[in-house]
Write a structure and sequence with these properties.
This protein is of the alpha/beta class. The protein has a domain at about 5-55 and about 210-320. The chain has 12 helices and 9 strands. The chain has helices at about 15-25, 40-50, 65-70, 75-80, 105-120, 145-160, 180, 190-205, 220-235, 240-245, 270-290, 305-320, and strands spanning about 5-10, 30-35, 55, 60, 130-135, 170-175, 205-210, 250-255, 295-300. It is globular and about 60 Å long.
Length: about 325
């Protein structure tokens, strides 16, 4: 079964996204997961009215996208009494790197992930899917043990929640930045890295790589470059967790019209017909190089929220899933 993920959109873009998904020539039975930052019951109702579609809100690790949950643990009094008091206050920030606590990184990471599960629980169990943004680029540095301890902790907390409150393991869509993805799959194993991969495996229904290519040059060559980390995950000997993640890997793209830093796309501002041709060749070559479990489109905002841009981006994925 193939999978389509649509992640992060302007509120006004959701009707266009859903209209496009309804009419797209997706393979029968394609699983469709759609969501943006924060939990919205209104979005959930619209999305789940589409056949095979499910709502998957995004939880962000950056202080700007997780400010509310970083500020304090928020539980009803009866639930708070069942949970250890440690780590109930604000998640501390390292002055030189506000994302990362200066100490107890794994413990604070687990607490942050559990606070995301608190939000899901507060939605009365009506939200059963989620997305995590993101395994940070810093995690790909060989000596980045504190970063991996924190991010791995967040994933552990998201996956397992608070057992005292009846939470069971729940996996979701875990996005991974290219800076981490391009380095981690081939990194020599250690006990520290083994714990990190265990956390990623437990949390990931799918691992989504941020393959935000510039629409430039030979699309086949670009596709092979971006497929290389998945190929390593699939084929690395003596690494069963990484092999499993390679099988559950989704290639994450952007529509290409919003040229914000880090999003790649149509950097030479070529006409739509050129963009559609380049993207089609890229997707075909990407499936040949290492077939992903599906494709995702991230950031349907600003120029990417134009109805025709949305239609072209999703139609390209529908064609690729048929190949």
């Amino acid at each position: 079964m193939s999978t389509l993920v649509v992640s992060e959109y302007e509120p006004g873009a959701l009707p266009h996204i859903l209209e496009t998904v309804r009419s797209a020539r997706l393979p029968n039975g394609t699983s469709i997961l759609i969501g943006s930052y924060g939990i919205s019951q209104a979005d959930a109702r619209q999305i789940e009215a589409v056949p095979n579609a499910a709502y998957a809100p995004i939880f962000g690790i950056q202080p700007g996208t997780s400010a509310g949950v970083r500020a304090a643990r928020k539980l009803p009094a009866a639930d708070a009494a069942k949970v250890p008091a440690a780590h109930a206050g604000p998640i501390p920030a390292d002055a030189s790197s506000p994302v990362l606590p200066p100490e107890d990184q794994r413990e604070w990471g687990i607490e942050l992930g559990r606070r995301f599960r608190d939000e899901l629980r507060a939605a009365d169990g009506s939200v059963s899917h989620w997305q995590f943004d993101e395994i940070l680029s810093q995690c790909g540095q060989p000596d980045a043990t504190s970063w991996r301890a924190f991010v791995g902790g967040v994933l552990n907390g998201l996956a397992f929640g608070r057992p005292e409150l009846g939470d069971q393991r729940q996996s979701g869509l875990v996005w991974i930045a290219w800076g981490a993805l391009s380095a981690l799959p081939a990194m020599p194993n250690s006990s520290e890295l083994g714990q990190f991969w265990t956390d990623v495996d437990a949390a990931s229904r799918f691992l989504i790589g941020e393959e935000y290519a510039d629409f430039d040059g030979d699309p086949g060559s670009a596709a092979r470059t971006y497929a290389a980390p998945q190929h390593t995950l699939l084929t690395l000997e003596g690494a069963p967790i990484r092999n499993r993640l390679g099988q559950r890997y989704i290639a994450g793209l952007t529509p290409g019209a919003n040229l914000a830093p880090g999003l790649g796309g149509n950097i030479h501002e070529n006409p739509p017909s050129w963009v559609n041709g380049w993207r089609s060749e890229f997707l075909a070559a990407r499936r040949t190089a290492a077939a992903p479990a599906g494709f995702a489109q991230y950031s349907l905002a600003q120029e990417n929220a134009h109805p025709q841009v949305i239609a072209d981006a999703i139609a390209a994925i529908a064609d690729a899933l048929h190949q």
